[in-house]
Amino acid sequence: MKQNKDILLAKANLVLKEAEVQGASQAQAVLTLTRMGLTRLANSIIDQNVSELHAKVRVLLYFGQKSGSVEFEVFEDDAIKNAVKQAVSLAKISPENTDFKSLPTKRNYPSSFDLDGLVCKETYDTSPELRAEYASAAIDMAHGVDKRIAAIAGIVQNISTERVVTNSLGVEGYEMRTRATTQLTIMARDGSEETAGWCADARRDVRDLLVEDVARVAAQKAVDGFGMKDLSPGEYEVILEPAAAAGLVFYTTMLGFGARRHQEFMSFLRDRMGEQVFSDKLSVSDNALDQRLVAASLFDDEGVPHQKVNLIDKGVVKNLVYDTMTATKDGVESTGNHAKWWGPAEPIARHVVAEEGNSSIDDMISETKKGVLVTHFHYMNPVNPTQGVLTALTRDGTWFVEDGEVKYPLRTLRFTDAIPRFFNDIEMVGKYSKFQSSPPMGLVPGLKLPSFRFSGSSKE
User: Edge to edge, what strands does the sheet with 66-72 contain?
Assistant: First the structure.
């Protein structure tokens, strides 16, 4: 297993030196080296096998309160120097950001975290032959569930990521992580009717990947999907399997708990700190130090170490997540949540952990009079972020539940509802799934809500 810490640090220092030559007052370099092996399934065969290596460099320069940044995938010294010059050019034409005071200074990283636990040699060294073996096992398992299974699609992959963050004020962080994942969508066909089932798993150690269990669950969902009916829009009880609940909880943290959104009056929780907004059965934290998580990181995109941040405590809104700029504006310390994902950089909870309960999905079904069981959601997006309104489609397994029994499968539904409304009351909290997921979803159990608004279906 090869580590590239020295070369990553050398390239990062080249950025900082060139920035100094160009007269920057402060500079930051983020370098990420991603090594991925992917085996793709389609129509129940191994359709593709690829290996990729991506070296991404992000440069951020400040000249006083003017900034310029560039991101690129070249690693040669001359190209890096030219990129720094491009950042200089952008900074010169940029307006001043009066909220900027400084990049973060040097920090100590958590000594309690199991660094060796972030990396698994077997995952790093996963061969195409092993991924093909897993893929073949998934295909055989799925087709063995029912003769109506028509096609298996999905991936088996292993990823190793090395990341360096440095700046001109002494920040220097390096980490390496590995993960293996599988995600399968399985189609079934009976005459003219087609159905689909889905399941996924993620592990640090590829040897722990539950490929056959994923295939069996996804195939059974597909088989149980025959005889789909429509459901009229309206409010229903809802049973959210962990994957469905995780999407809703993540969007709750992203739209509600980032300091930038609060400061810019975009959060639906603006001026509601300390209030009982959610059910007392909901407690959520952002906690990269929870060693049950797969592929957790040690520090944010500024090199500031992560820490545990309690976001919701028994329904009470407790804390925001901060990066350096937003923390400086509010006169607090950064919580290590700076993220450059899409759009402007902002603090985001990236390791979401919701406390589990003791109920099973079967328990939730037995307590439902008239409701909907959801596997997971697709294409979730905010409709009105300031009110916490979300919309998404159900996908790959949705059923109508009545008088404690699953009655029949449903065609695709759309929900449109507000987070403060549907999470205001939670009837039951489930256990964590045996299948794991990678951050930001983290650990989220299944949930039963007494009221959830479905606004349409594939019929409309």
Answer: 66-72, 45-63, 26-42, 149-167, 172-190, 193-203
